[in-house]
Amino acid sequence: MIVAMQEKATEEQIDAVIDVMVESGVNVHRTTGATQSILAGVGPTASLDLSKFEVLPGVLYVHRISSPYKLAGRGFRPEGTVVEFSNGVKLGGERVLAMAGPCSIENRAQIFETAQRVKAAGGTFLRGGAFKPRSSPYAFQGMGIPGLELMREAADAHGLLVVSEVMEIAQIEPMLALVDCFQVGARNMQNFNLLRELGQVRKPVLLKRGIAATIEELLLSSEYILSGGNYDVILCERGIRTYETATRNTMDISAIPVVKKLSHLPIVADPSHGTGRRDMVAPMARAAVAAGADAIIVEVHPNADKAASDAAQTLYLDQFDKLMAQLRLIATAVGRTI
Ligand code: PEP
Ligand code: MN
Fold it and tell me: Are 17 and 39 spatial neighbours (Cβ–Cβ below 8 Å)?
């Protein structure tokens, strides 16, 4: 259930409503927007008589939520979520952000050169995997924490934020001081134990859509994180598996406006994994920004052809420069900045 408070509702009135909700056996999640507070009640609300909430002082309206995701739904934060990072960078607002970096962190020279070029082109995040979910156990598995330490150093040297994939609960603690945003990969979108644990963390989470997941399943997965009290969840469309074989995955651009309608969470587009092909990354990145994506995440590498993983979809650094110039025009055309 959603209880929307009136603009002029006092703190005492809000507390009183929360008390009645708790007494009725529901967990309360509060969000304070620009103009009003919204209280989401999660639990056995089907049998509750909502009129007892409607008459409480300060209440504007009460809705029963029929969708299976209560906290990820638009109604919880009608104005949309803006995730603010430690350096003041905001994701989900007017500015479209760019996250870029190699699929895998490989060595110091690679990550430092990448960081310098990503920053110079106007990127805000350095991406790079230290723990890699590879389809084959014999493929490069990533550098682990020493790799992340290198990426942190490179990002700090160039004023960038760090996003990197966490594959299991035991990695959360050692990664905490090294990343600004945890990435949950497509293969882990339904690793519910990991998601629950990330709900306890107070650091943003970029949740990628599973290879065969519906948008509803993506939103339900985000609910695992949100219900733990971590409201800084960012969704990511990275292509889904279809019967089409011309591209590695099928980049579902329409997921962007669908998510915008159904949810308040920001959405990022990953055209690298979405297409699997270097020559198709820029067109899909442009389409994603035009469709309303809040950020793009792309793979770039100083020696892209020789990248240890995902070489075929990794942009040359010059291609990233060009892409950023194009995205600037598109962002302006849709009333945003980059
Ligand atoms: C990645 O970002 O390198 C990655 C493994 O992505 P995904 O989980 O979308 O396959
Ligand atoms: Mn990759």
Answer: yes
Domain count for the chain, please give it: 2
Asked if residue 304 lies in contact with residue 130, where contact means CB atoms within 8 angstroms, the answer is no
Dist. CA 311 → ligand 1 center (Å): 13
Site of tokens 């110079």 = 120
With a threshold of 0.90, does the pTM exceed it? yes
10-58 pLDDT, tens per residue?
999 999 999 999 999 999 999 998 889 999 999 888 889 999 999 999 9
Among 270, 273, 281, 297, the mutation site with the greatest number of ligand 1 atoms within 8 A of its Cβ is 273
Q: Annotate 103-161 with three-state secondary structure.
A: CECCCHHHHHHHHHHHHHHCCCEEECECCCCCCCCCCCCCCCHHHHHHHHHHHHHCCCE
What angle separates helix 215-226 from helix 255-262, to the nearest 10 degrees?
50
Same domain, 46 and 190: no
Is residue 250 within 8 Å of residue 239, measured between CB atoms?
A: yes
Domain hosting residue 216, numbered range: 83-333
Instruction: Put residue 59 in one of left, alpha, beta given phi > 0 → left and psi -120 to 50 → alpha.
Output: beta
Atom 1 in ligand 1: which residue has the minimum CA distance?
Answer: 103
Q: pLDDT at position 59, please?
A: 97
Same domain (yes/no): 133, 37: no
DSSP 90: E
